[in-house]
Specification:
The protein is of the alpha+beta class. It is built from one helix and eleven strands, in the order H-E-E-E-E-E-E-E-E-E-E-E. The relative contact order is 0.11. A hairpin with a 7-residue loop joins strand 6 and strand 7.
């Protein structure tokens, strides 16, 4: 009787142990599979900043550079990726293209949004341009478009002292510069300045 009771106790203990082990293994597998799915679907791991624009580098590297909106303590974070015809993405923020901020016209503490990138050769000199949105100083939070330039794609980009587009009617803002090639090599930017208002400036 004692042996039978002892055997039952041992078998019950073994069964409980096996059940717990299987539960742990199943849970670990489920968590690992879930983590794998989350990592695969988490595009933020590949593209660590919002509102980005990507252009080809013109430095012989055959790569691309993406400039993003203010994030991670940087005014204009950038990442380098791709090769040849493959643009790709990178989870690594390589630096800040505008460490000094958006210029004298920009409100202190303002972030920089949706930078539109462009490369242009003029008079034999290649320059990179960033057309960006920021909050205008002492103007009730109005958003305007500025431009900064640099011969180095990694910066620092030098902003102009005044915005190039800044609505003066009511509470309108200028947002989301879309940069294109204009007549005779001019750089043109189309911007939104209201629910249905668009403007186009060339320089």
């Amino acid at each position: 009787m004692f042996v039978s009771t002892l055997m039952k106790t041992v078998l019950r203990t073994v069964a409980i142990g096996l059940t717990l082990a299987l539960a742990v293994l199943s849970g670990t597998t489920a968590v690992s599979a879930q983590a794998g799915l989350l990592d695969a679907a988490d595009e933020s791991q590949d593209f660590p900043f919002p509102g980005a624009d990507t252009i080809a580098l013109h430095d012989g590297s055959d790569q691309y550079i993406s400039y993003g909106a203010s994030a991670h303590g940087r005014n204009v974070p950038y990442a380098v990726s791709g090769s040849g015809n493959v643009v790709g993405t990178s989870p690594v923020i390589a630096g800040d293209a505008m460490p000094a901020g958006g210029g004298a016209w920009v409100e202190d503490g303002s972030g920089i949004w949706t930078p539109g990138a462009w490369y242009q050769v003029k008079d034999g000199v290649g320059r990179y341009y960033l057309f960006y949105t920021a909050t205008h100083r002492n103007d009730n939070g109005r958003k305007c478009i500025g431009v900064a330039r640099s011969q180095n794609p990694f910066g620092p980009f030098n902003p102009e002292s005044t915005p190039i587009v800044c609505p003066d009617k009511g509470d309108r803002w200028a947002l989301d510069a879309d940069v294109t090639q204009g007549p005779e090599g001019a750089i043109c930017g189309a911007t939104v300045s209201g629910p249905r208002a668009w403007s186009r400036r060339c320089r």
